[in-house]
Amino acid sequence: MGIFNKLFNSSSELREEKVLPWQTLNELRQLDEIKELSKFKTQLIFKHSTRCGISRMVMNQFVSLYDLDLNTDLYYLDLLNYRDVSNEIGYKFHVMHQSPQLIIIKNGVAVAHASHGAINDLELNKFE
Q1: Quick check: is 55 in a domain?
Q2: What is the pTM of this model?
Q3: How far apart are CA 106 and CA 42, in angstroms?
Q4: Which of 35, 60, 87, 117 has the highest Cβ tally under 10 A?
């Protein structure tokens, strides 16, 4: 029976779900704040499509790999509901739109960005 417990996780212990310190990004004015804050602390923007299975998979992987000890601010953008904010990110930080996408902002500019599976290949600690 031990192998079935391992395969199907049928133990009575519940796993704690990892919760990231997301800040909701839903207003254009926040982009100026992010740009200013990036002069003191690295800012991360995760653009997510709530209707895309690939975006959900990448976000789940990102959550599981994210180091809670990183000294960054982490923003979540539901790009379907806030398309204007998503578009303005492209203009303000000179990054072509992709989904899902992670944009790293430091000293007022995007210093790195990645989309899809490449998001989880970024070594975020290099940008602190």
Answers
A1: yes
A2: 0.86
A3: 5
A4: 35
